[in-house]
Design goal:
There is one protein chain. By secondary structure, this protein is mainly α. Helix content is 70%, strand content 0%. Helix 1 packs across helix 3 (40-57) and helix 1 packs across helix 4. The protein is globular.
Length: 81
């Protein structure tokens, strides 16, 4: 697996974890990625994802990867275009 493939895979893993936790997350139609991460409930879930990926994949997810995963999550679960 190339580094580019691994980079994209980790984004998909983070997005999948967000989808699994969506009942515990706070989001709405007008919420932007930066606002999503600042909410206390979401911040702790994002931290959990960072730690989970580090432990299970031995990979330190970047903030950019996490923001991309959040963008995909918001796009799939709100009217964000």
């Amino acid at each position: 697996m190339t580094s580019a493939q691994l980079y994209k895979l980790i984004i998909r893993v983070a997005h999948s974890l967000l989808e699994e936790m969506k009942d515990q997350l706070v989001y709405s139609n007008n919420l932007q990625v930066s606002e999503f991460r600042k909410l206390a409930a979401n911040e702790s879930m994002c931290q959990y994802i960072f730690e989970s990926i580090l432990v299970n994949y031995e990979y330190e997810i970047s903030h950019n990867q996490m923001e991309t995963a959040i963008h995909f999550f918001l796009r799939n679960n709100t009217n964000l275009v």
